[in-house]
Specification:
The structure holds two protein chains of two kinds. Chain A has one domain. Chain A contains 13 helices and no strands. The relative contact order of chain A is 0.14. By secondary structure, chain B is of the alpha/beta class. Chain B folds into two domains: about 240 residues, Rossmann fold; about 120 residues, abc- transporter (atp binding component) like domain (Coagulation Factor XIII, Chain A, domain 1). In chain B, about 25% of the residues lie in helices and about 35% in strands. Chain B is built from eight helices and 18 strands. In chain B, the strands form four sheets. A six-stranded mixed β-sheet of chain B has the order 5-6-7-3-8-9, with helices on both faces. In chain B, strands 10, 12, 14, 15, 17 and 18 form a six-stranded mixed β-sheet that branches. In chain B, a hairpin with a 2-residue loop joins strand 8 and strand 9. Classes of the chains: A mainly alpha, B alpha/beta. At the A-B interface, helix 2 and helix 5 of A face helix 1 and helix 3 of B.
C-alpha cells in the first residue's frame, strides 16, 4: 500500500492541491473562511458557557475547538472522498486509497495553518508552552485517526445511502463525549463517583480525549491524569488507522460496481 | 517480448440487482436482526468471454445495447473486478470510458490536464512537455486557463480526447467516443487513431458506427448477451451484427399463431452462389428454404409466403395453391424451397412471412409473420415504391 502511494505520489500531490484550491476558489478571503467557522463556534460557546456560569478557560476552549474542527472537517469531507469522485473511480484505475488520503492531507495543511494562527493567539495572551517537541507526534496521531475513520466512512458512504445522517448523529454525541468545551477536571470527579476508577479508562478509550489533552498539555502546559491514559488514546488512534486501511483495501474492489 | 498484450481468460461479471430500494445502514441492521433476506437477482453482464489482443492490434467491439461492451472495457481498465476468470494486461492503459469524466468543473483546463496525466501515472514535468500538443489538438488556446465548467460540451470532449492520446499509453480503450463532436473533430480523432496504430500501439474501440469501426479495426469482437457471438474479420462481424439488429428491430411486429399440427421450424435464405445470407442485390435470385415438422400425417397442405416492409405492410404474397404446386402429404421433418428468380425491389429491409394451412383455408397450421428479414442492397433503378414492374414507354 505504501509502495502504491509512493508510486502515485504525483497524483496524491495534485489531488491535495486540488482539494485545497477548490475550497479556496471563488472566495477572496480564502483560508480565513475556514477560520471563521471555529471563531464563530468559540464565540458561541464562550458566551453560552459564560451565561451558564461555567468557568471558562478561553485558551483551552480555543485549542479544543480548533483541533476538534480538524477532526470534524475530515469526517464531513470523507463522505464525499469517494462519492464525490465517482467519475474518477469509474473511469480510471489507480489506488483508491489516494482519494481519502488526499482529502485528509488537504485538511491537515489547513489545520497546520490554523495552528499558526492559534500560536499567534497564544503568544498574545501569553500562556506558557509545554513540551513543544511532542507536537509533531500528536499531529501525526490525529492524522492517523482521521485517516482511519475517513477510510471507513468514505467506503461506507458508497454502500449505504444514510451514512451521512448516521455520521452527523454520531459526531454530535462524540463532540460532547470529548472534553472540547469543558475540561477533564470538570467531569471526572462525578464520573468516577458513578463508574469507579475505570471511568478514566473509558474516557480515554475515546482517542480524541487523549489527543486533545495532549494538545493542551503542549500548548498550555495543562496537567493531565496520567501518561498511560494518553498512551491508551494514541494506541486506539493507530489501531483505528490500521483497521481503516485493512477494511478499505478489502472493500475498494467493489467501488466500481456500486458507483 | 510476448505477443499478446491483453489476455482475457474465461471471464464473467455478475451484478447483484437489488429489487427493493437502496441499501441503508438502517435496513442492513434490520435485516441482520430480523434474519430477513434481501431480495436480490443475479445478472451476468458477461460470461465465458475469452479472447486475446496482440500488440499493435486494433480490436473493435460491437454489440447491441446491453451486450456487455462497456463492462468488458471497464474490466480491462481495472475499474471493475471480474467475478470469475482472469485478465492479464501489459503496459500502461489509457482509457476513454467517458471523455473527460474525471475533470473537475471548478479547475481550469490546464489543471485538469495535470490531474488526468497524474492519474495515468505521468509527472507534472512530463505533462508540461505535452501541454502544447494537447492545447493545439483540442483547439483550446484561449480557453485553457478557464474553469472547465465554462466549456462547451465539444470543448470538453476535445480536451478529454487530446489528453488520452497525448499521454501516449501502450493500450488505448475507447468507448463510443466517435459519437460526439462535429465531423471535423471526428476526422481528426480517426486520423490520430491511425497514427496510433502506426506506432504499433494497441487499441480497443467500442462503437455503434459500423462504417468507421469496420475501417479502423483489424479484428472485431461481436458481443451478444454477455457472450462472444463472434470474433474475427471486421466485414463478416459487421454483417452478422447488422443481420442480428435487423431481426431485433422487427421484433415488435412479429407474430406467430396456428394450431401447431404443422410447425415451421425455420427459414434460411440462399443467394445465387448457394451461400446463406440475408443480403441481396438488385435482380439477384433468392432461394428461401423453409423447414417444417409435423407429428402426424397431413393431407394437401398449402405453403404460403408474404413480403412486407419494415412496418408490416404486405407488398406481395403468394402460395403453393395459387401456383398449382400440389403437395399430396407431408409427415415428419422436411424442407420446402421457394425460388424468386430476380428480386426487383427498392433498396431497403423487407420481412418475410411464412405460413402453412389446409387447402380449404379453414385451418391455419402455423404462421410466422414478419419473422425473417432480408435486406436489398443496391437498386439499379431509382423508381418509386417497393416493387418494380417491367414497363415501357411509347410516344
Amino acid at each position: 500500500m505504501f509502495k502504491d502511494l509512493y508510486k502515485h505520489r504525483e497524483l496524491l500531490l495534485i489531488l491535495v492541491q486540488r482539494n485545497i484550491k477548490i475550497r479556496y476558489k471563488n472566495s477572496a478571503l480564502g483560508f480565513f473562511w475556514t477560520l471563521l467557522g471555529p471563531i464563530f463556534l468559540i464565540c458561541i460557546y464562550a458566551i453560552f458557557l459564560h451565561l451558564m456560569r461555567f468557568n471558562i478557560n478561553l485558551p483551552s476552549l480555543v485549542t479544543g475547538i480548533i483541533t476538534w474542527q480538524f477532526f470534524a472537517m475530515c469526517m464531513g469531507d470523507s463522505l464525499h472522498a469517494i462519492m464525490g469522485n465517482a467519475s474518477l473511480v469509474t473511469k480510471a484505475s489507480f489506488p483508491r486509497i489516494i482519494l481519502p488520503s488526499a482529502m485528509v492531507l488537504a485538511n491537515t495543511v489547513n489545520f497546520l495553518l490554523s495552528i499558526l494562527v492559534l500560536l499567534i493567539y497564544l503568544l498574545i495572551v501569553k500562556t506558557c508552552f509545554g513540551v513543544m517537541i511532542l507536537l509533531p507526534l500528536i499531529i501525526m496521531t490525529q492524522f492517523a485517526l482521521c485517516l482511519g475513520l475517513a477510510l471507513i466512512v468514505s467506503s461506507m458512504n458508497v454502500f449505504f445511502r444514510d451514512t451521512e445522517h448516521v455520521l452527523s448523529t454520531i459526531m454530535l454525541a462524540w463532540f460532547f463525549l470529548t472534553p472540547v468545551i469543558y475540561g477533564i477536571g470538570d467531569v471526572m470527579p462525578r464520573a468516577t463517583e458513578l463508574l469507579g476508577p475505570s471511568a478514566y479508562y473509558l474516557f480515554f478509550a475515546n482517542p480524541m480525549t487523549g489527543i486533545l489533552t495532549a494538545y493542551r498539555s503542549v500548548f498550555l502546559s495543562e496537567g493531565f491524569p496520567g501518561i498511560h491514559l494518553i498512551a491508551l488514546s494514541f494506541g486506539v488512534s493507530w489501531i483505528i488507522c490500521l483497521i481503516g486501511v485493512v477494511v478499505f483495501q478489502k472493500v475498494q474492489v467493489r467501488f466500481g460496481d456500486e458507483l | 517480448m510476448p505477443d499478446n498484450v491483453i489476455m482475457v481468460d474465461n471471464i464473467g461479471k455478475k451484478f447483484r440487482l437489488r429489487t427493493s430500494g437502496t441499501r441503508t445502514i438502517k435496513s442492513a441492521i434490520l435485516d441482520t436482526v430480523c434474519f430477513r433476506g434481501r431480495e436480490t437477482r443475479d445478472f451476468w453482464a458477461l460470461r465465458n468471454v475469452s479472447f486475446s489482443v496482440r500488440r499493435g492490434e486494433t480490436l473493435g467491439i460491437i454489440g447491441i445495447n446491453g451486450a456487455g461492451k462497456s463492462t468488458l472495457l471497464s474490466l480491462i481498465a481495472g475499474t471493475k473486478m471480474s467475478t470469475e476468470g482472469k485478465i492479464q494486461t501489459q503496459g500502461t492503459i489509457s482509457c476513454l470510458l467517458e471523455l473527460g469524466a474525471g475533470f473537475h468543473p471548478d479547475l481550469t483546463g490546464r489543471e485538469n490536464v495535470y490531474l488526468a496525466g497524474a492519474i495515468m501515472g505521468l509527472s507534472q514535468a512530463q505533462m508540461k512537455e505535452r501541454m502544447d500538443a494537447i492545447i493545439e489538438f483540442a483547439e483550446l488556446q484561449e480557453f485553457i486557463d478557464q474553469p472547465v465548467k465554462h466549456y462547451s460540451s465539444g470543448m470538453y470532449v476535445r480536451l478529454g480526447f487530446a489528453v488520452a492520446v497525448e499521454v501516449n499509453p501502450d493500450i488505448l480503450l475507447i468507448d463510443e467516443v466517435l459519437a460526439v463532436g462535429d465531423s471535423a473533430f471526428q476526422r481528426k480523432c480517426i486520423q490520430r487513431m491511425d497514427e496510433f496504430r502506426q506506432k504499433k500501439k494497441t487499441m480497443l474501440i467500442i462503437s455503434h458506427d459500423m462504417r468507421t469501426i469496420q475501417s479502423i479495426s483489424d479484428r472485431i469482437l461481436f458481443l451478444n448477451d454477455g457472450t462472444v457471438f463472434g470474433i474475427g474479420d471486421p466485414e463478416k462481424m459487421v454483417e452478422s451484427y447488422e443481420s442480428l439488429s435487423r431481426r431485433l428491430s422487427t421484433k415488435a411486429i412479429r407474430r406467430e399463431w396456428g394450431t401447431g399440427e404443422v410447425k415451421i421450424t425455420g427459414a434460411e435464405f440462399f443467394n445465387k452462389n448457394g451461400k446463406i445470407t440475408d443480403k441481396f442485390n438488385w435482380n439477384e435470385p433468392l432461394e428461401a428454404r423453409v423447414s417444417y415438422e409435423t407429428p402426424a400425417r397431413i393431407e394437401t397442405p398449402v405453403f404460403g409466403f408474404a413480403i412486407s416492409d419494415v412496418n408490416g405492410r404486405i407488398i406481395y404474397g403468394n402460395n403453393t395453391q395459387i401456383e398449382n404446386f400440389n403437395i399430396p402429404t407431408i409427415e415428419g421433418k422436411g424442407t420446402i424451397s421457394l425460388y424468386l428468380d430476380n428480386i426487383q425491389m427498392a433498396k431497403g429491409t423487407y420481412l418475410f412471412s411464412f405460413s402453412v394451412h389446409s387447402s380449404d383455408h379453414k385451418t391455419n397450421y402455423h404462421r410466422l409473420d414478419n419473422c425473417f428479414p432480408i435486406v436489398v442492397e443496391e437498386s439499379d433503378k431509382p423508381f418509386e415504391g417497393y416493387c418494380y414492374m417491367a414497363c415501357r414507354w411509347k410516344k
